[in-house]
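Sequence in, structure out. Go.
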Amino acid sequence: MLPAFNFVRCSIVLIIILGVFLLISAIGSYLFSQSLMNKKIHENVKLTNESKAFKFWLNPPASIYRKYFFFDIVNSEQFLNGAKPKLVQRGPYTYKEKWEKGNVNFIDEEHIEYAPISTLYFESSMSVGNESDLISFLNIPAASMIDQIISGKFDFFGASFANTILNHLETKLVIKRTIKELISGYDDPLMDLASDYMPDIIKGEKFNLMNGKNGTQWQKFIINSGVYDPLNVGKIVSWNGLKKLNYWNSEKANQISGTDGTFYPPYLNRSSIIESYSPEMCRSYGLQYLRDNQINGVKTYDFHFPSDLFSASKLEQEGFCDGKCLGNGVLNISSCYGGVSGFISQPHFLNADEKFIQSINGLEPNKEIHDFLIHFEPTTGVPVAGNVRLQINFYLEPNQDIDLLKNIQPVLLPVIWFDEEIKLDLQTTEELSKVAFYVRLVTIIPVSMVSTGILLILVSSFFLLRNSRNQLNNKNAKKKIYLAEEARLFTNEQN
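Output:
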């Protein structure tokens, strides 16, 4: 029969071996399961005729609403005579939005061509009023024409001739229009004139804020299907036949990067920069991580506009400052809108210079309701919900040669902002929740095995060391007793 300490020692060694086995098994299990999971995710996110992702991309299982907020100029007479404009926000006027993909064509296995179509349907139950509501609004066709004349784009027009035309047409800088007219269009003789000289920008004789983009195929994308690399899925190859833009002053600014903003690659982390191209902004942009969140049971990473996206120094450095760069928080988009002094910003000039807010009565920027924010399930890259929020502004300044501008003060005037709200349906959200659970499970099981293995090794090593120390102490004690006995016997013999 083995001594007790040998049995204990063998048991401890066996436990250490078990711990090492658990460690090796955990590493192997993790690598295998990760490989299997990545393969499964790739199969589901690539855009092929058979994939779930293709059906999702073609017909997103989501509710999409676009909420418009109009700025009503309630002191128009005083404003035209030099007073600070007083704006009252009207809205939301909510439209159900339907996304479609027209003329879908697989050019080859890796590239898909399509024309996105966005169609709006008014939802009175989600709006504060009716489309028949009347507001005082900037006469954008008149402001745009004046801008072209002042900048010399219409070199055949002089200020005197422009005044004659504007007076003959009884044109005013601030006009009364219904919400429906502003969204769906109204006849304007200046549009007829402008469409002859800028047919690529002015779509038809009616003016509307959609500019011919409601329910039409006005753009064409070629994107990567992600069939070879899931990280490339949805990334733009060309837009309207262009691989780069020609609006800006640098190669970087003119790059068309990322996706079209409706579909994203998988495997996001907190340091990711999520790039998209926006035709409305005439540029690509990157979203940055904001926080961890949970939407309808799905753990998400929230990404938003970085606060310095439109900072003047950054715009200047990156080549976006073409023409007037008025300050922080606003992007001059006149170069891609025919020279008209249009500016994009966040609603109510969120993250912009205080001077823009102080030059107008009625603005109250609020990060909670004005930030551009999207909630992503990080493993699949699917946006669970989001709010795309942007504001359109026009720069006005006095001009003694133009009757309509003689008395006004310089101002960057907001005219409208929108909140495009997207929410996945419940079934898709539940499927994402299951995917997220399996991903966590694949990670948790190996981690648990590693933790158990390390714990077994540490505890067993502790007991093994303690057992060895006890054994050594026992041996030393026996040796001391033996020596003491030897010394006693020797003493007795001497006596």
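Check: The radius of gyration is 34 Å. The longest strand covers residues 87-106.
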